């Protein structure tokens, strides 16, 4: 082959390679521009590299070699404490003890407590029966607007605290109730009822201006200290201890406790008790109603609540009388509420007429 022909072949080969390279460039798609929301979630944002898989492989091995060995789990210390279910994030198991110590400090704060005898010392036109009728009606309002139980408890607390410092005419008692519920709803609810709705529920007895003015008066008297621990707040904790580590909650037990706790709101004689004492009394009575022959108080309950059986006696007997209809028999809103299947009809569960006196002895086996 002559030198000229050899040069021609080399030239043709170079041209063919150039054409193939150009065709490869044309076949490569242009990078698509996407908005931020369309970006894929990549583990590595670097551009593709044929050597990259090998690099990642080596890097992974290197990291695996350097990964420290896990510290062996130590055996948990022996304790008699009954903790809440770890799967329930709302119970805040790691911080439960500190939280309830803080709540106890709040509930004993005299600035957040109503006077135990405010009807005798402060009020001249309002009686304990009127207060019971108001609370019974507020339960119906809370059901009508599907408010949280915590809203109801706060409402009653605001009513008692306001009446502890201001003498009120009986014609204004219902206004105090709906205005207190408005304040509690704004504190607890995602979508509180409108002022017009609360005026309507009173058959327009009060105007929007009346409700707003009373709301301002309540906030001034309470000094904007609205976040009190309620019976329901503490009862949630005591229920977990009382169920003694059951994987699934006993709905009959919980609903009966909630029923007894709401009944305690009706009686003026329960105002003097701390919310934690009422909650402990509710657990005591709930266990007694479900298992009348078993001592309802245990060492775990005494340890967590801080109350001895003898300290609960007066409150337990009051709530038991409410349950049997010996007190507040004409107030039916709560009783009708808990007769429904939604609450397992706990309002019609039978109970012994008397709580044996030996259950209130402080010696616990």
Task: Please provide a written account of the structure.
The chain has 365 residues and is mostly helical. Among the domains are: 114-222, Cyclin-like (Cyclin A, domain 1, Orthogonal Bundle), CATH 1.10.472.10; 231-360, Cyclin-like (Cyclin A, domain 1, Orthogonal Bundle), CATH 1.10.472.10. The protein has 15 helices and no strands. It has helices at 3-27, 52-66, 96-107, 118-121, 128-144, 149-163, 173-188, 195-201, 208-222, 231-242, 251-266, 275-290, 299-305, 309-324, 333-337. It is extended, with a radius of gyration of 34 Å. The model is unreliable at 27-86 (pLDDT under 50).
Task: Specify the structural class.
Answer: mainly alpha
Largest sheet: none
Bulk shape? extended
Helix content, binned percent: 40-55%
The strand count comes to: 0
Name the average pLDDT.
Answer: 78
Which CATH first-tier class of the domain at 231-360 would you pick?
A: Mainly Alpha
Please compute the radius of gyration using only Cα atoms.
34 Å
The CATH topology label of the domain at 231-360 is Cyclin A, domain 1
Run of helices and strands: HHHHHHHHHHHHHHH
CATH architecture of the domain at 231-360: Orthogonal Bundle
Oligomer: single chain
Secondary-structure blueprint:
Layout: H1 3-27, H2 52-66, H3 96-107, H4 118-121, H5 128-144, H6 149-163, H7 173-188, H8 195-201, H9 208-222, H10 231-242, H11 251-266, H12 275-290, H13 299-305, H14 309-324, H15 333-337
List keywords for this structure.
Cyclin A, domain 1, 365 residues
Short description:
This protein has 365 residues and is mostly helical. It has 15 helices and no strands. Among the domains are: 109 residues, Orthogonal Bundle (Cyclin A, domain 1); 130 residues, Cyclin-like (Cyclin A, domain 1, Orthogonal Bundle).
């Amino acid at each position: 082959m002559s030198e000229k022909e050899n040069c021609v072949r080399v030239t043709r080969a170079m041209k063919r390679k150039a054409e193939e390279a150009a065709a490869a460039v044309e076949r490569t798609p242009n990078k698509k521009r996407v908005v931020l929301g369309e970006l894929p979630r990549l583990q590595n944002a670097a551009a593709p590299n044929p050597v990259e898989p090998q690099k990642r492989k080596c890097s992974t091995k290197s990291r695996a070699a350097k990964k420290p060995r896990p510290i062996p789990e130590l055996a948990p210390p022996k304790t008699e404490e009954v903790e809440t279910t770890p799967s329930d994030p709302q119970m805040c198991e790691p911080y439960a003890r500190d939280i309830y110590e803080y709540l106890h400090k709040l509930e004993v704060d005299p600035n957040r407590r109503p006077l135990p005898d405010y009807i005798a010392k402060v009020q001249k036109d309002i009686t304990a029966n009127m207060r019971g009728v108001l609370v019974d009606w507020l339960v119906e309002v809370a059901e009508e607007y599907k408010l949280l139980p915590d809203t109801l408890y706060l409402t009653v607390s605001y009513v008692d605290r306001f009446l502890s410092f201001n003498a009120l005419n009986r014609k204004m008692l219902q206004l105090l109730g709906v205005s207190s519920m408005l304040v509690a709803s704004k504190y607890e609810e995602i979508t509180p009822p409108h002022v017009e709705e609360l005026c309507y529920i009173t058959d327009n007895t009060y105007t929007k201006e009346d409700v707003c003015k009373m709301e301002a008066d309540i906030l001034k008297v309470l000094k904007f200290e609205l976040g009190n621990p309620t019976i329901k707040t503490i009862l949630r904790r005591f229920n977990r201890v009382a169920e003694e580590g059951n994987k699934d909650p006993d709905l009959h037990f919980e609903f009966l406790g909630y029923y007894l706790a709401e009944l305690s709101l009706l009686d003026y004689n329960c105002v003097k008790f701390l919310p934690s004492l009422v909650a402990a009394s509710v657990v005591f009575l709930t266990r007694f109603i479900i298992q009348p022959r078993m001592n309802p108080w245990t060492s775990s309950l005494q340890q967590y609540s801080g109350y001895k059986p003898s300290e609960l006696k007066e409150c337990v007997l009051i709530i038991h009388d409410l349950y049997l209809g010996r007190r507040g028999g004409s107030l039916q809103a709560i009783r009708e509420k808990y007769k429904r299947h939604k609450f397992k009809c706990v309002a019609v569960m039978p109970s012994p007429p008397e709580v044996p006196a030996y259950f209130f002895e402080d010696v616990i086996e």
